[in-house]
């Protein structure tokens, strides 16, 4: 035997022994790594991979988390559009622009910021028995571009925002100590997904540099199972399993594949027989085979109600090789029939929220199943069954957790191709989105929860052609989920080939007219023959919760909240912040309730994606959630309360209005939304009407009926004459599905039908005229209806609906007010039932009324009715206030309150209640004012008027593009 033959046989023997082990060997790479920033991008030229780096960092983690990077200044080059430059110029915010006191209002502030190149390095001891094995470096969720060296040899470059960066190091590593160097670049370069994409932007997770998930070296068989994709066939009780085997050796491979599946997370258990198939793979080649896996009568299916899961074990076996792979999947079919989604043939309506990558402690997404289970269980407790990931794709742990909890997910290509990049024009983002979604399908395609896919968010460019082709590509490639173009607002062009529409335009509350719950969205969705999922519903703002500031103990600080809090204090309302939060929160919940119910009563409505159940920390600080950015409650609504109107089954009432006189009859049509596992059989729907004391004034029930899945299904009508209601009253209609937990309710108000006359003891006037002054000087009482006369505060536009998204992002586009704080315990409201917040009886009083700016009033002055201003301005406002003036007393209202109002029973009743209060001994205003300060409300404009300083959007004055203008 010659020397070469001997070496060859020895190698084969070693190869056989090492690769015979089916279980991979792993070196965990978490821990301390050498580290160095490369601000000048000189590391490649200077061969930093050959030198010992100067610093140390802990991985998994980000640079900011390790306090590596640059300090935050006004000239920090953020990744994200700034829509409102006024922060850089407003005089009162100057102190927040001073070095050492920088408070950025647009998003959360990281401990450090760095965009550029950084190097990470670790020395690893490779075991001798790894010789001949395939060795893979696995980097989960590296951000963004990685280049890898082993000693002085470059291995390659990868760039993915959605999938692990895996490098085959087999031919670079030998037993003994080896140096691995990783160069990470988080700059937005040739491949530009858009600076506001939630995969990269400072508006949400931030453009961090690092590696945050699993980091390991894995040694396993050089002939290996590269990919397994499972295609369930529910109807025929089988799955088609597509298996790709790679052969990295110089020898042809002949062996067999064995597959079997077993359930693991249910009380009932099921398993399949083991199925075998031969397979051959040529040297340095690969082969893909398909194997049919039959299931028996005990097959378990996956859905939101019963998320049964299986593990598929795939074994690759030959005389020399053993390799295996375990894959989690669910037997489910998510399809479309007409304008309905079907899960396993059962119609389902999507009740979703948008996840924007809010992780305020770390600044990057969680990579553990436990963390994602907490999030999904919290979301599910609010009656939701769906999550859209806005312009990003979560790590694998999210899919695993969603499978277990039972959620329908819509991840997206990691792009918002607008504000710079555009699709369909041949830019690199075009190919990148195909590459990224292909990686998503390979890495996460077997997870049952991955039911929908969008290419991204709100594009610009030649979008219809590009997205039609994108949808057609995926429909032909993979039938396990359904596809839309991109998630868009109502003004975007329709993509005809999309299997479902995720778009705006058919959403919102049309409360310029009187609030009601009779209308629906039928006419809006009529042009669409596919399921319509409403894009980003809600966006109703709530005042900041300053108690939340103390939660920011990680990489981020809520400098935006700190600035808003200090500014509120500067406007002499710091002690009202909690009241503002709760009052505005109650209105926010009311709005979400009414918009969601409107969708649930619309026949054929496919679903919604709320923005959001939780707050959005960027884009000017969009406090649109009933949960904060930590997915925790804020104190004004619980999951149990929210899920009364948002659930798999929701009783609904069609009510024409909410303010009545006792000369009328309250009427309601009861309908039902049901999206359950099975029909509601022989369901009895019952109702009660009760007063605030809990006394039942009327009740009834409807005949038993079976309800299939569907929206707005007719139940019956009810009628309740109001003639016996003698006093102003708040009543509640409650409707429930008997013997279930499903119940819902609506408040309405009843007022005596009576003529209201001005008391002779009160001077009623619409101007602060000479007679009013005379009455006050003589110790009399004046009611000033100043509706339409306000100058100081005229620029503040109040609707009944609260601020949309936030006034910074939309440059003070109205409305500017987010509800009202009402001194409900005051005897002024003795004959006007109200809580401390806006409710539906206030609509005819509040909507489009002027507000008064109390900037010159005493600092402790508090009005009876106080509109809550946008937190970017924090103006002290009033709708109704009382005061002592000289020897007299006055009530001033900028809402139209008078004795002769027609068809406004609530406004008329409020006037009556205020007048009776003025005629009582309890009318004793706390504060004294001069006539001049009141008169000035109708003469002088506000001292501070919002100035955008620029008309462009996004701003041309943002520091990234024109730092010379920042003074």
Automatic annotation (TrEMBL):
Coiled coil segments of this chain: none
Xref: InterPro entries: Bact_Beta-galactosidase (IPR050347), Beta-gal/glucu_dom_sf (IPR036156), Galactose-bd-like_sf (IPR008979), GH (IPR017853), Glyco_hydro_2_N (IPR006104), Ig-like_fold (IPR013783), Ig-like_GH2 (IPR006102)
Gene Ontology molecular function terms on file: beta-galactosidase activity
Record's signal peptide: 1-24
Entry annotated with the keyword Electron transport: no
UniProt EC number: 3.2.1.23
GO biological process: lactose catabolic process
This protein's name: beta-galactosidase
Source organism of the structure: Flavobacterium alvei
